[in-house]
């Protein structure tokens, strides 16, 4: 692999538009779709920027998601520090073990299960908006709505008391902060693991009607799932379940505020299919998982004319793939009526495709219209230049979003 003049990942976003991925992606997609990048620890990996190549790799078993394999490109020192081979969550394992564990969770996230949760999700949304309205403007949309909404939903689903949200939100935040040190990440993960381990003990004694209780009864007691794996997967669900949707809620609202005509459609449309399409387009346009999908080759594989050797890491920039003009014409434009937008890879692709996508869709489809209807005059109170965008986190978004109405 070439070693000279290799750019450092992440590449700079400085393009003037906070919703656009690094401008260099466009040139790379055209000229060097498989290009070397240097990671935080000096490791050189391959950056893939084309949609078709990314889908091919994500569906190819010769690329491993096992984070303990030599060459797997970790996102940060903190992420690397958490690589314990004896208790990996299924997102970090390969089939057949990945599939064996994932299957135990899928039944809880089907379209039908999520449809049954919708009235409760709507109630949570309405209650948060009531509170925000009663407190009056101004408000920080992130802390008043975007973060507590998915956090309450996933806590209820798992059976995690939301009164403990201070603990799990703080720890989850440490885990997604790129600058967290190995010690900080280990401590945060340890705190979460102790907390969930204790909670599982409570569920063993007094089962309730929630996901953790049912997994304890049906999978842990039967010996099918080790208790330590339930703890790790619960951490995965708890953090993936609120960080991502929270960022989509706040950043998506900001993107709509920049496109008032499209915002009016999301607010006023009584066609759920049109709102659903708008959500897909926001997912594509914003692709908040900007640190890329990470894999390591287990054999030599040729992609777009470049041979990736066994043991070399790849970073699949799905934010670049979702702006690939050969798949999405005029890709840098937000168009909530864009046809065939569900082909986007904001939820990944292949066997690791997001387990919570039905839930995330339901939350966003309910949240944007409810928020915009409640506050038809919603506006930000500071210019974009003063907002703190999450370039320092594994998942993109805004740290705060000061609004009034
Ligand atoms: C996997 C994005 C919401 C749970 C993934 C992956 C992406 C993603 C890109 C693929 C990871 C890979 O290939 O390495 C998102 C986005 C969300 C969201 C953009 C919200 C807008 C959620 C929610 C949950 C969740 C609400 C919780 C229930 C998971 C899990 C995996 C995953 C468990 C691992 C799946 C596997 O490895 O088989 N997500 N996600 N996600 N997501 Fe999400």
UniProtKB/TrEMBL annotation:
InterPro entries: Cyt_P450, Cyt_P450_B, Cyt_P450_CS, Cyt_P450_sf. The keyword Heme applies. Pfam families: p450 (PF00067). The keyword Chloroplast does not apply. One of its GO terms (molecular function) is heme binding. Keywords: Heme, Iron, Metal-binding, Monooxygenase, Oxidoreductase. PROSITE patterns: CYTOCHROME_P450. Belongs to the cytochrome P450 family. This is Cytochrome P450.
């Amino acid at each position: 692999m070439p070693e000279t003049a290799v750019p450092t990942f992440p590449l700079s976003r400085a393009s003037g538009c906070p919703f656009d991925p690094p401008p260099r992606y466009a040139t790379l997609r055209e000229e060097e779709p498989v290009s070397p990048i240097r990671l935080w620890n000096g490791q050189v990996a391959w950056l893939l920027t084309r949609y078709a190549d990314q889908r091919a790799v994500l569906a190819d078993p010769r690329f491993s998601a096992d984070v303990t394999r030599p060459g797997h490109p970790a996102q940060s020192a903190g992420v690397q520090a958490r690589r314990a081979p004896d208790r990996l969550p299924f997102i970090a394992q390969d089939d057949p073990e990945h599939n064996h564990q994932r299957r135990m969770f899928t039944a809880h996230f089907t379209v039908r299960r999520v449809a049954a949760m919708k009235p409760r999700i709507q109630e949570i949304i309405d209650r948060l908006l009531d509170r925000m309205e009663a407190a009056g403007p101004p408000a920080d949309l992130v802390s008043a709505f975007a973060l507590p909404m998915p956090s309450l939903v996933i806590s209820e689903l798992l059976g995690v008391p939301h009164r403990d949200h201070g603990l799990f939100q703080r720890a989850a935040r440490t885990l997604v902060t790129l600058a967290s040190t190995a010690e900080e990440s280990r401590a945060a993960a340890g705190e979460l693991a102790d907390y969930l381990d204790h909670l599982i003990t409570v569920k063993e004694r007094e089962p309730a009607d929630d996901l953790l209780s049912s997994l304890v009864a049906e999978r842990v007691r039967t010996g099918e799932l080790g208790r330590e794996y339930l703890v790790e997967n619960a951490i995965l669900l708890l953090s993936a379940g609120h960080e991502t949707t929270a960022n989509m809620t706040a950043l998506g609202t900001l993107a709509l505020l920049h496109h008032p005509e499209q915002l009016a459609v999301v607010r006023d449309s009584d066609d759920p299919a049109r709102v659903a399409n708008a959500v897909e387009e926001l997912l594509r346009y914003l692709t908040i998982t900007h640190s890329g999908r990470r894999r390591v080759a287990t054999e030599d594989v040729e992609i777009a004319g470049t041979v990736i050797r066994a043991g070399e890491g790849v970073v699949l920039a799905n934010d670049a793939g979702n702006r690939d003009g050969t798949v999405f014409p005029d890709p840098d434009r937000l168009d909530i009526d864009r046809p065939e937008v569900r082909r986007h890879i904001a939820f990944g692709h292949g066997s690791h495709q997001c387990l919570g996508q039905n839930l995330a869709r339901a939350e966003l489809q309910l949240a944007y219209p409810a928020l915009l209807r409640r506050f038809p005059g919603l506006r930000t109170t500071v210019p974009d230049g003063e907002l703190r965008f999450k370039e320092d986190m594994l998942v993109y978004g805004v740290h705060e979003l000061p609004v009034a109405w």
